[in-house]
Amino acid sequence: MKRTVSQPPTKAYESWGRYPRVEPCGVIPLDWRDELPDFGALGASVLPYGYGRSYGDSCLNKNGILLDASGLRRFIAFDDETGVLRCEAGVRLDDILSLVVPRGWFLPVSPGTKFVSVGGAIANDIHGKNHHQGGTWGRHVRRFELVRSNGERLICSAEENAELYRATIGGLGLTGLITSAEIQLKPIKSAFIDEEQIRFESLDEFMELAQESVDDFEYTVAWIDCFVEEGRYIRGHFMRGNHREAPDRPEDAKRALPLVVPFNLPGGILLNQYTVRAFNTVYYHRQVAKRVRKTIHYEPFFYPLDTIHNWNKIYGDAGFLQYQCVVPVENDNAAIKEILSRIRRSGEGSFFTVFKTFGEIASPGMLSFPRPGVTLALDFAYRGTSTLDLLESLDAVVRASGGAVYPAKDARMSAESFHTFFPAWDEFSEYIDPCFSSSFIRRVNGEDTL
Amino acid sequence: MNRRPLVNHTGSVLIFGATSAIATDVARRFASGGATLFLVGRSEEKLSALRDDLLVRGAARVETAVADLTEIESHERVVEAAKQALGTLDQVLVAYGVLGDQRASETSVETTLRDWQVNATSTIALLTLLANELERQRFGTLAVISSVAGDRGRQSNYVYGAAKAALSAFLSGLRARLSKAGVHVVTIKPGMVDTPMTAQMKKGPLFASPARVGQDIHQAMLRGRDVVYSPWYWRGVMLVIRLIPEPVFKRLPL
C-alpha cells in the first residue's frame, strides 16, 4: 500500500534545542522499507526525521512533511567475524551497542548521545572523541540505500553512485531518504575505557595536552570553564582514554551497573551567569589531583548526559541554542582566543563547554563539518536578540578564520556565514532531491525566515 | 502472583500476526534468548525483514508462513507447518487484530462483521485448533492479545470492545479447561499503545510504548500468568470503569 496522504502530527516533532518551534503540515510514519510513499505526490516538501536530536532547525520542516523514520528500526545482517553491520536507517546507536558490545564490537565513532539514528548519523556526518584517529562517521559507512522522489532506489558507496554517496554523507537529509546502511564496526576486547583526567590551567596547556595525546589516545576531549581571567582563556579537565585491552571479568558487570548520574540539577534552578560560574568553579575543583587515572564503563565515558532524560528541558520553555564551531589552529590561536573572550564578556554560557581538537582525516562528505582545528561547543539559553547578536559576533570571527559552524546544531546562522563555511554548496546542490527540503536549508538560502 | 524465576527460553515460539509492533518486540526478546521462532503474517516482505532482524539478535532459527488468518481455512495448514518446523509448540502468541473504525461500523453491517471476523470469529477458530494441539502435547503456553476495551463496551469503540470481550471470555474458559493438561493460557489486556495501529490517534500520557507492552507479554508468557493488564495501571483504571453504574455510564462521553 503506497500512502499518498500525510496525517496531522500526533505527537510533538521538536528539535533538541526546542528552538525554533515550527510545525510540519503533516507527518508520514515509515514502518517498512518496501512500503514507502510516493514523495512526489504529497503536495509538500519532505524531510526525514529520526529522534529529534539535532539541536536547531536542520531536522524541522515548517509547513512541509516529516518522514518519521523511527519505524525503520530493524537489523538486517551482522557478521561477527568482520564487524560489518547492516541495518535500517531508524536503528538507534544504543540498539547497535546493546547488540554488538557483548560480541566484541563497538561503534567506529561515538557522538555525545547514543539516542541518534543511523540515518541521522550519516546525514550529519557526526564525529566523536576519536576524530583525530578515526575521522567522521561517514568514513565508516560502506554503503547505504537511498530512495529518491523519482522512485529510484540507489545503492551508494565510494564506488557506486559515488557522487550521491559523498553528497548524502553530511547532506542534512536533503538528497533523498536513507532506508538502510552498512557500517564497519571496530573490534574491542572490553566494555571499559582506561581513562585519564588531567586538570589544566590555560589554553596553552590544553594545546600541549592535545598534541601529546594524538598518537597514544584514541579518545580525547576536554571540559572547560571559560570564565577565567583574560590571558589564560580557559581552565578545565582534559579527558583521554583507550578501550581497555584486558578482557572483562564477571565482576566488571556489577561495577558498571547501575549507571551513576554524574550530577543532579535541582528543579527550578535559576540559569544565570552566577549559577553557571559557580557550577563551573565547583566542577573544576571536584578533581583535586592534577592527574587521575581510572577504568570506567563506556556508557558514562561517552554518554554522561544520556542518563538524564530530557536534560534539554532545563532551559525552560524558550529553549536553547547550542553553538559549535571549529577554527583552524594557526596564528597563535587568535581566533579561538577572540571567541572565548567574547563569550566571557557576554556572561552567557553553559554548564558544560566542550573543547576538542579535530584531526586531519578528511571525510567523504561534501558538506561535512569537521575539519582540522579546535572545536568548541556550548549551550546558550535563548534570550532573544541578545543571544542571537552574540552568536552572530562569534560567527564573524569564525568566518574570518576559515572555520565553520555545525549545521546540526544551528538555528540562526546567516546565509552569508553558511556559504562561507561550506564552499562545496554549489557542487552539493546539484544532488538535492527536488522534493526534499528543511527549515534549515531554506533559511540559509534566504528562502524562508522564522 | 506466580513468581517462578525467569530463564531464557531457548525452545520454540510460534507467533500469529508477528509483524505487528507489539509482536515484533516480543519476538525480539525471545530471539535474543536464542529461541527458534515461527512467524505468521500477511506479507512475505515484512516477515522476511523481521526474520533478518531476529536472526541478527540471536534467534537459533526463524521460519515464516504467509497467511491471511481471517480465512479460517488457512489455519490448519499454518498450524501444521509450524508443528513440522518447530517440533513442539512451547510458547504461542496470537497477536493479530484490527482496531477498526467505530463510526464506519455504525453505518455498515459489512464493516462491523468484517472486523468481528478478524478480532473474534477467526481468532476463536484458531484458538480452538491451537488449544487441542497444546492439550494433546500436555504442556506449553498460549498467550493471546485481547484488550482493556473488552472489559466494558464504550460508545467510542464498542464494536472492537465487544469482539475483545468475546475473546476474553473464551480465553477464561479455555484457561480453566487447559490447566488440567498443564497448559497456560495468558490473556493480555493492553491499554493504548503507540503503534501503527493507533497511528491516527493523538498521543497522550496514557500511551505506552510497544517495548513496555512487549516486555510485559514476554514476562507473562515465561511466568505462565493468567490475566495481564499492560501497563499494570490499566487494571485499576478498568476496575473503576466497570464499577460505574450503567445509568451513569451511558451518559459519559467515553
Helix content of chain B: 40-55%
| Uncertain residue ranges of chain A | 256-268
| Strands in their spatial order, largest beta sheet of chain B | 3-2-1-4-5-6-7
CATH class of the largest domain in chain A, named Alpha Beta
Largest beta sheet of chain A: what is the strand line-up? 14-11-13-12-16-17-15-18
Number of H/I helices of chain B: 9
CATH superfamily label of the largest domain in chain A? FAD-linked oxidases, C-terminal domain
CATH architecture of chain B: 3-Layer(aba) Sandwich
C-alpha end-to-end distance of chain A: 36 Å
**Nearest-angstrom radius of gyration of chain B?**
18 Å
* Overall CATH architecture of the largest domain in chain A: 3-Layer(aba) Sandwich
- Count of separate structural domains of chain B: 1
Distance between the termini of chain B: 31 Å
Description of the structure:
- The complex is a heterodimer of chains A (450) and B (254).
- Chain A is α+β, with helices and mostly antiparallel strands and 450 residues long.
- Chain A contains 13 helices and 18 strands.
- In chain A, 48% of the residues are buried.
- By secondary structure, chain B is α/β, with parallel strands linked by helices.
- Chain B has helices spanning 21-32, 44-56, 74-86, 102-107, 109-137, 158-179, 210-223, 234-243, 246-249, and strands at 12-16, 36-41, 61-66, 91-94, 141-145, 184-190, 227-230.
- In chain B, strands 3-2-1-4-5-6-7 form a seven-stranded parallel beta sheet, sandwiched between helices.
- In chain B, α6 links the parallel β5 (141-145) and β6 (184-190).
- The model of chain B is unreliable at 1-5 (pLDDT under 50).
- Chains A and B meet through β4 of A and α2 of B.
